[in-house]
Amino acid sequence: MEFSEYFPIWDQLTPGQRETLSRSLVSRTVKKGSVLHGGGADCTGLLLVKSGQLRAFILSREGREVTLYRLFDRDLCLFSASCLLRSIQFDVTITAEKDTGLWVIPAEVYRQIMEQSAAAANYTNEIMASRFSEVMWLVEQIMWNSMDRRVAAFLLEEAAIEGANRLSITHESIANHLGTHREVVTRMLRYFQSEGMVRLSRGAVELTDRAKLESMSGT
Predict the structure, then answer these.
(1) What is the pTM of this model?
(2) pLDDT attached to residue 44
(3) Residue 41 has what pLDDT?
(4) What is the pLDDT of residue 79?
């Protein structure tokens, strides 16, 4: 598949802008676990996902992680171009959750096109609004939802992403997504198991009663 098929405003750019983008693109394939963007001082460029899955998260001073959002096929990551978004006051790390193919758009090239093209500026603003909505939703979950609800909601979301009830995931990984301690997640999962909602095994969690999990999560 060509970049033009993944970039929704391609047809609204001028021939010169398309040529500039095409010349500057870098195609990459990264392995699961790779760090693509390491924080505010790093200006990797914009990442457009061909296939795979990326994770954007922030790191607390105590070293705890919390997932802001995930990126899937055709998603564009702006936070990896921190030099383009000078108003961002927090450091975002981007890692590959699966083997991922992507294009990197240099930040300066994208900035020039955005300044010239109303379509590019509007598209960028729409993405920013969507990402900040996800971040505000996360803040709301942390502030107002109990951990058992958040763990249940996460398991259901993960099952939907993977298309399976058996998830190859550790308690530590779940804790990193939710910004809590592994012991808290382990306690919640053991409770879920005692209630028949999940079955635990080494490195895996199997959902056994989705209806109960949905009731627990409030969805």
Answers:
(1) 0.86
(2) 83
(3) 57
(4) 84
pLDDT tens-digit map of 200-214: 999 999 999 999 999
> Using an 8 Å Cβ cutoff, are 208 and 197 in contact?
yes
Residue with tokens 């971040």: 135
Q: Which parts of the chain have pLDDT scores under 50? A: none
Which residue from 118, 34, 32, 124 is spatially nearest to 77, judged by alpha carbons? 124
Q: Can you tell me which residue has the tokens 């999560």?
A: 217
State residue 205's pLDDT score.
98
CB atoms within 10 A of CB 155: 26
Instruction: Write out the DSSP string of 59-90.
Output: E-TTS-EEEEEEE-TT-EE-TTBTTT-TT--S
In this prediction, residue 171 carries a pLDDT of 97
Structural domains in the chain, sorted by start: 3-143 (2.60.120.10), 145-217 (1.10.10.10)
Token pair listed for 164: 């399976």
Written as six digits, the tokens of 204 are 């895996």
The whole-number pLDDT of residue 60 equals: 81
Sheet holding 46-51, edge to edge: 26-30, 100-105, 46-51, 76-77
HEC string of 97-129 equals CCCEEEEEECHHHHHHHHHHCHHHHHHHHHHHH
Amino acid at the residue 24? S
Count CB-CB contacts under 10 A for residue 68. Answer: 19
pLDDT at position 40 is 58
The DSSP code sequence of 145-161 is S-HHHHHHHHHHHHHHH
